[in-house]
């Protein structure tokens, strides 16, 4: 997909006509991150927001024990870094490139006139915040009510919705995450997550490959995620 089409998926641009899209997108800079590079750390001050154009990026937090928890893995068309603009304060997560990433960057000062002058932009950003709150509520409920295999199934389906490719062999999901990172995303130990994955594989619901998974039985995975 070309850059313009990817950017147009971002909530920031939702509802803008072509002319306004060109004006806003041309005020953004471009940034390339190598795999493993940290864009910012939890606690940093922030005055820029970002849209992923290419690659995958993870948002994580460190607990008191130093263990990392992943809140999200983002891909093309997704936006982040807006919380510290609307609620001035430190970055709430650490952003790390999982693969080589191409990002577009918008300075707070360049966004301000759009927020004041174009309600569509403010509406798009509010939509993203509302969607994220819904998702965060689901995550909390799942931590309380779902078992680890259920959460693993849900995490894989969420990754599949964004990164999945339908092939005649099944739904191939190149998530690019290590087993440790998958465990951090699910909020469980690597051993428990590995056990759940091995069990799904033994049942023929999926096939495990390094940094990717092929979902073979979508219906059963969906049922397990509920
Ligand atoms: P900010 O706090 O500026 O920098 C870190 C960013 O991570 C934050 O803005 C959000 O854009 C993003 N973020 C924080 N929490 C979540 C979450 N639960 N799900 C997805 N993205 C998040």
Main beta sheet:
4 strands, antiparallel
The overall pLDDT, averaged over residues, is 93
Spell out which ligands are present: adenosine-3',5'-cyclic-monophosphate
**Strand-pairing-aware structural class:** alpha+beta
Spans where pLDDT lies below 50 across 5 or more residues: none
CA-atom Rg in angstroms: 18 Å
Shape category: globular
Protein name: Crp/Fnr family transcriptional regulator
InterPro entries: cNMP-bd_dom, cNMP-bd_dom_sf, Env_Response_Regulators, HTH_CRP, RmlC-like_jellyroll, WH-like_DNA-bd_sf, WH_DNA-bd_sf
Organism: Ammonicoccus fulvus
Keywords: DNA-binding, Transcription, Transcription regulation
Could you name the key traits of this structure?
single chain; 226 residues; alpha+beta; four-stranded antiparallel β-sheet; binds adenosine-3',5'-cyclic-monophosphate; Crp/Fnr family transcriptional regulator; DNA-binding; RmlC-like_jellyroll; cNMP-bd_dom
Structural overview:
Residues 146-219 form the HTH crp-type domain. It comes from Ammonicoccus fulvus. With 226 residues, this protein is of the alpha+beta class. The chain is 45% helix and 25% strand. The chain has 9 helices and 12 strands. It has helices at 3-8, 18-26, 83-86, 108-117, 119-145, 148-163, 179-186, 190-202, 218-225, and strands at 29-33, 38-40, 48-54, 57-62, 68-74, 79-80, 94-97, 101-107, 164-167, 170-173, 206-209, 212-215. The strands form 3 sheets. Strands 1-8-3-6 form a 4-stranded antiparallel beta sheet. A 4-stranded antiparallel beta sheet has the order 2-7-4-5. Strands 9-10-12-11 form a 4-stranded antiparallel beta sheet. Helix 6 packs across helix 9. It is globular and about 55 Å long. The two termini are 32 Å apart. The chain binds adenosine-3',5'-cyclic-monophosphate. Residues 46, 59, 71-72, 80-84, 91-93, 132, 136 line the site of adenosine-3',5'-cyclic-monophosphate. The site of adenosine-3',5'-cyclic-monophosphate has 14 residues, from strand 5, helix 3 and helix 5.
